[in-house]
Amino acid sequence: MKKPHIIIFSGYGLNTEDETKYAFELAGATADIVHINDIIARPAILKQAQIIVFPGGFSYGDDTGSGKAYGNRLKHHLGEKIEKFLSRDTLLAGICNGFQIITNAGILPGALIANDPPACGDARAGSARYICRWVDLEVKGNSPWLAGIKTISIPIAHGEGKYYAPKETLAKLASENVIALRYVEGETAGHFSLPANPNGSLLNIAGITGYNGRVLGLMPHPERAVRFTQLPHWTYLRESYSRQGKALPTGAPGLQIFKNAVNYFI
Q1: Active site residue 83
Q2: Which CATH number is 88's domain given?
Q3: Candidates 17, 19, 96, 158; catalytic one
Q4: How many domains does the chain have?
Q5: Which domain holds residue 251?
């Protein structure tokens, strides 16, 4: 059976293309990393893909706000092509900076703004403090990206990851059951005594879906959690498994997201 093919956007400061490509190949797909300018010049190459991914990074140095410049470029040069791509039975994901890009391009609603403490009363205020740690997530909805997953622990790394939207939009997201990922207190946060919500995200939102679940935007990085040795407490777990006489796993939680995407086409 032919493997599904992924096109991973690159250019202008995106910097997790290789990890994303590796994760998809580990899950059983083929993948190409393609500069956005090459896609603008030859948009027909999107016809070769079943999945498009906008990976993490710091596009345009976040100088105009995270994902804004890249999102504008995407919208004005490839907006119609992306809509045509999504008119097929395809998948699309935006990870971290990629989530910021696809919200700025209007593919998903809302915005990702500067991090602030969870207790901050003003939804627009933010410290812009860069946060790099692991988080625990609760999974809801019916996205093929998240099939069979109830909870998952994966890392974040961002300075502008607080999900923000007007009250009406938040209510609509909740009523349509498209708030796919929420920050919760789980094993990882508990192990390191960290707050569940790392950035003050409204409704604890870490990711949302669109297009009947086929489009996923999320701030955490599943591509950084595909190997057991990437877990923040893997040495502790290794000792625990050893004492119980259990075999060490090779994979990590994030890999399932990529497997789900691949299996959607198999």
Answers
A1: no
A2: 3.40.50.880
A3: 96
A4: 1
A5: 5-263
